[in-house]
Amino acid sequence: EYDQLMKEPWVKYGTKLKLREFKEMLDHLPRSSSIAVISASALQKELFTDSGAGTLIRRGYKLFKHDSIDKVGADRFRQVIHDRDPEVLTGFQSVTGVLSDLKKTPYTIYGDEPMDVVAVVTHPPGEIPVMTKLLSSRAGVLNSVIDNVFNSVKKDHRKLFWTLNADDENRSWHFERADGSFTRAGKSLFWYGVQDVKEVERIVEEFEQKGRIERSYLPVGPSAPPHRATSSSGGPAPAPSGTRAYSTSARRLVNQNVNAKRGYATVAPEPIIHPVQASTQQKRVALIGARGYTGQALTALINAHPYLTLSHVSSRQLVGRKLEGYDKTSITYSNLSLKDVERMEKDGEVDAWVMALPNGVVKPFVDAVDKGVEAREEEGRGKGGVVVDLGADYRFEEGWTYGLPELYGRQRIRSAKRISNPGCYATTTQMLLAPLIDHLNPTSNPTVFGLSGYSGAGTVPSTNSTGEPISLPKITPEMLGGAVKPYSLTDHIHEREAGFHLSSLLSSESGKKVKVAFVPTVTSWFSGIIATASVPLSQRMTAREVIELFEERYKDERMVEIKKEVPMLSDVEGKHGWMCGGFQVHSEGERVVVVGGLDNLLKGAATQCLQVSL
């Protein structure tokens, strides 16, 4: 700063002399020395401060500005990126990827000699500059080197945009230096030199089109509340969904009535392209096999559902007892015979049959429904009700529609009369692998390691001390000793199920099949699945590219949440949707690891059943 200060018009006479003497003194002292200019009465209080009443003068380092990495020192610059870049530290980007991106457009690197602070500004001809990196050491912040480097940037660029993680510990520094900012889903966009929000939106849209910023920030402002939003025709717009967007501004409030584009840590927004609407007609549901955990969860969901009612609940063990947890009407457990099922279907007493039975025993009930349908059609009274099998008996059968709407199409499910509900492990396995289906290494199978609550093992009938029938878990935390237990280490049915249906996403001409190596483990918690997928790739990819594949695949899915962090049990237990996160790519770029999770009784069973039966 010395040379610049000496050119200032207000630096003259005694001030200029003092500055020259200060410089000469510091030139001969160790670099750690400093000079304090303070009144004698405040000497003890202000001697070592640079933020109080006194003036502190240090011998710092010269700032530099270069237009190539080689001029800075490739090894030094690479080390700074490796040690400080948050995207590199979290695995979203590699050092090689950062250096490669720099070569795509003209840029300038700003910094100080010891590289306590390094800034990178890209500035294609005729376009607004973007500061893609501002990497500071702790010393760079404490010694205000970051201010000097930023001032150097401002001298060269009248307008500038940059981004920052919203949880950055120095975020207040950025807010103070920006004319405006916008924060959404863990990322903040800052700018100075542009006062019109419409101009900001135009610039940001141009950045996104040209790939100069990685995330979607439009609109620059919060969406209108659901009760105020209107469509282009003037009528009510679809209610927005997903994680709330937040907006801040250093100079002005920004508000735009536009729906938000999706970022990498948000819940997917409401589908707006030809959505398949759920039916609002009242439906009567018969539940066969209501004793287990899934039957109980389904009962609770139907009790809270505005368009579904339970007409019959069948359980041999609980026959004659009142159904607990259902308030719409008084329901008593029955023990429906095959003749009962056939007659009820023929007479149109049921709109949907839900089979919550163990594997291998559901076929006679399905056959009974089919006979009732035949008799009904012969009399010209419609095509019969929907059958949803929660077990595995029909997941590979032709004529049955596989009910995973996020991957295999809602319209096909909506028109189906026979639906097989996917398995809990199979659901999260397919959701983890589907976005990567075109990038799987054909010579190496993906591996999924799954941890599930013990409720996934099911229940066994028993009686309590008074002789009343109850259900007990097949596996208890006591049996596990509070630990975990791997089981079915090969050929688990969900392994075959996931590969079978994922293969349908591949081109039929390719003749390829997806194979998955799946290792299930039962745990001491009650419900919830956390699954980790290790996926060999057919070509090198970055974590950012992988995230974009997931965002694109699930961009219209309200029950899918994509986050940066690894999902925890608390994120999925008792929740109705599916979550993924923790995206990490191996240093060689040829293997990605992603973590997904769901509640095995909800999205893995009961919630998914309601998705496909309406």
Structure notes:
The structure is a single chain. This protein is elongated. The strands form 5 sheets. A 7-stranded mixed β-sheet has the order 3-4-5-6-7-9-8, sandwiched between helices. Strands 19-20-16-21-24-23-22 form a 7-stranded mixed β-sheet. A 6-stranded parallel β-sheet has the order 11-10-12-13-15-14, with helices on both faces. It contains 22 helices and 24 strands. It is an alpha/beta fold and 614 residues long. Helices cover 30% and strands 20% of the residues. It has 4 domains: 2-58, no CATH class; 63-209, Gcn5-related N-acetyltransferase (GNAT) (Aminopeptidase); 283-420, Rossmann fold (3-Layer(aba) Sandwich); 424-600, Dihydrodipicolinate Reductase, domain 2 (2-Layer Sandwich), CATH 3.30.360.10.
Give the arrangement of secondary structure elements.
Layout (H helix, E strand, L loop, with lengths): L1 H6 L6 H14 L6 E4 L5 H4 L8 E4 L4 E4 L2 H4 L1 H11 L1 H4 L5 H8 L4 E6 L4 E6 L7 E7 L1 H5 L2 H12 L3 E6 L5 H7 L2 E5 L2 E6 L4 H13 L73 E6 L4 H12 L3 E7 L23 H9 L5 E4 L7 H16 L7 E4 L11 E2 L2 H4 L1 H5 L3 E3 L3 H10 L13 E6 L6 E5 L5 E5 L3 H4 L4 E2 L6 H10 L14 E6 L6 E8 L6 H11 L6 E3 L6 H4 L5 E8 L5 E8 L3 H12 L1
Parallel strand pairs: 6-7, 10-11, 10-12, 12-13, 13-15, 14-15, 16-20, 22-23
Antiparallel strand pairs: 1-2, 3-4, 4-5, 5-6, 7-9, 8-9, 16-21, 17-18, 19-20, 21-24, 23-24
